[in-house]
Amino acid sequence: MPADTNTNEKNRPLVIIAGPTATGKTFASVELAKRLGGSVISADSMQVYRGMDIGSAKVTEEEMQGIPHYLINVADPADAWNVVRFQKEAEAAAGQIYAKGRLPFLVGGTGFYIQALLYGIDFTEMDADTECRSAMEEEAKKGGAEELYRRLQEVDPEAAQSIHPNNVKRIIRALEFAQKSGGQRISEHNRNEHLRPPVFDAVFFVFTMDREKLYARIDARVDRMMENGLVEEVRRLKDQGLTDSDVSMQGIGYRQILRALDGEYPMEEAVRLIKRDSRRFAKRQLTWFRRERDVTWINIDEYPDENALIDHMETIILERLSLQFRPT
Q1: For the chain, which residues make up each domain, given as ranges?
Q2: Can you list the pairs that 154-162 forms with residues at least 24 positions away whose Cβ atoms lie under 8 Å?
Q3: Alpha helices in the chain (DSSP H)
Q4: Alpha carbon distance 123, 87 (integer Å)
Q5: What pLDDT was estimated at residue 102?
Q6: Alpha-carbon distance 269 to 267, whole Å?
Q7: Domain covering 13-121+196-321, topology
Q8: pLDDT (tens digit, 9 = 90+) per residue, 141-179?
Q9: CA-to-CA dists, residue 108 to 154, 204, 211, angstroms
Q10: CB 126 within 8 A of CB 176
């Protein structure tokens, strides 16, 4: 157990392990949590959903190795999970972790979630459902996201560049913000919020590696998902009444398999698209994290083995947070 977590409001310790999919964040976070008396808060927008295990590469009980994990399996697939809910529940989880004398590790690849918690971004404007949001959601259900995305390109070109054309939730959020704020762009709002000082005393790691090696890992992970029953998982969710209008089913892997099950293209094409879109997503993740401040980049290719990597990260944590963490 840590001797002192130093949890006053202005100096709450937090370790962030971020980066693209398939870079080993889960293993590193668990090993460090074991050494430093930590607990993990997931910053993954898909692992929150119950019953969506294979396509989200959800951490297993075996992989957790007894380390407490928060924000895993906390929402039904029919729920519209969003950054506002994440921020609220992640703050509550951090409070519970501090109360137990443990160190929180925020782990995942959803950069907007990490930013929301780290900087205490104000989502007051976006906290309640509105008529305009409902109207845009209905428009997307009927005609897809193409027209909404075109509208966003006109209203906020910078935001449109950072949002995938199929990400209906974020497109609507950006358009709604512009409407509710009297024309302010959400990209400008996010930039201003990002200038806030962090509300945690954080050590922020971002994993990276050789691009071709990363893409090979991603492809291999998709092959394992297929072998482990991704098609059956998506078919079960489809039988429960979920469609691609549900936020949960818009995730990479679920959307492509669902469309293959609907006969839009062969399953082999779905696999190709999952690999392609996963690689593109990894590239966008790296671009997002390059904009972050005070980040310690970890190129995992530079370490001879996993122990050397964990040793180096542990040293940085102890030096930066000035905490006397020692294994019991």
Answers
A1: 13-121+196-321, 126-193
A2: 155/185, 156/185, 156/186, 156/187, 158/185, 158/187, 158/188, 159/185, 159/186, 159/187, 162/187, 162/284, 162/288
A3: 25-36, 61-64, 83-99, 111-119, 131-143, 146-155, 157-162, 168-180, 186-194, 211-228, 230-239, 254-261, 267-290, 306-321
A4: 9
A5: 97
A6: 5
A7: Rossmann fold (3.40.50)
A8: 777 778 888 888 888 888 887 787 877 878 888 888 777
A9: 31, 12, 19
A10: yes
Q: How confident is the model at residue 76 (pLDDT cuts 50, 70, 90)?
A: very high
Q: In whole angstroms, give the CA distance from residue 65 to residue 32.
A: 12
Q: Give 204's strand partners.
A: 16, 295
Strand partners, 203: 15
For residue 143, the number of C-alpha atoms closer than 13 Å in the C-beta half-sphere is 8
Report angle CA 29, 35, 40 to the nearest 5 degrees: 35
The residue written with tokens 């947070």 in the block is 321
**Count, residues in the chain:** 328
Residue 206 has phi, psi (to 5 degrees) of -125, 125
**How far apart are the C-alpha atoms of 280 and 289, rounded to whole Å?**
15
Tell me the Ramachandran region of residue 218: left when phi exceeds 0, alpha when psi lies from -120 to 50, beta otherwise.
alpha
Q: Is the dihedral of CA 124, 127, 132, 133 positive or negative?
A: positive
Extract the tokens encoding 234: 């998506």
The partner residues of 298 in beta bridges, in order of sequence, read 207
The 3 state secondary structure assigned to 58-97 is: CCCHHHHCCCCEECCCCECCCCCCCHHHHHHHHHHHHHHH
Helix (H, G, I), strand (E, B) or coil at 104: strand
The structure's pTM equals 0.82
CATH fold of 126-193 reads Histone, subunit A (1.10.20)
